[in-house]
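Re: beginner question about structure tokens

> Can someone show what the tokenized structure looks like for a real chain? I only ever see the sequence side.

Sure, here's an example I had lying around. Input first:
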Amino acid sequence: MRIISGKYKGKKIFQPIDKKTRPLRDLVKESIFNLIDHSKKIDLQLKNANILDLFSGSGSFGLECFSRNAKKIIFVESYKLALNVLKKNISLFENTENCKIVEEDCFKFLNSNIIIEEKFDIIFIDPPYKEKKINQVLERIKEIEFLKDNGILMIHRHKNDNVDLTKKIKILDERKYGISKIIIAN
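And the corresponding structure tokens:
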């Protein structure tokens, strides 16, 4: 795995070696960032954006945003092996004071009395493919108003995932890449 663009383009990052964590493939990541940069359905810039990376795993999405000058990235991960890789990956970069790791289960994180000073431009949600409680995450994000008005939710699921997403979000686009499905909503 590598950073595909920005000031750290080409930098290799580590990925978990166990089967419980599914890293975001470079092809899918590149496609996601092409959508962010070029889609008429998305009106935001990564430069100076606030990013929430839920179920972060190795941190590949958030670190790509960091390379592209995002203002603040919050990684939320609880699985120890993935967390160790995430910490190792962040340590590969300089000036990471705007990167924060929250070592907590995403469901607990969203249901706690957290105080986040700023809303997010992008919330990337990448739970394990077999996780079926995705609507709990989406509804809670809407309830606590974590997303800026023009912000987007990016949801990474298996292409055959058939969970009906909550009507509390508006789906802007859906794309399939190999076994991945990316849903863009707000």
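Each token stands for a local structural state, so reading them left to right follows the chain. The longest helix spans residues 26-38.
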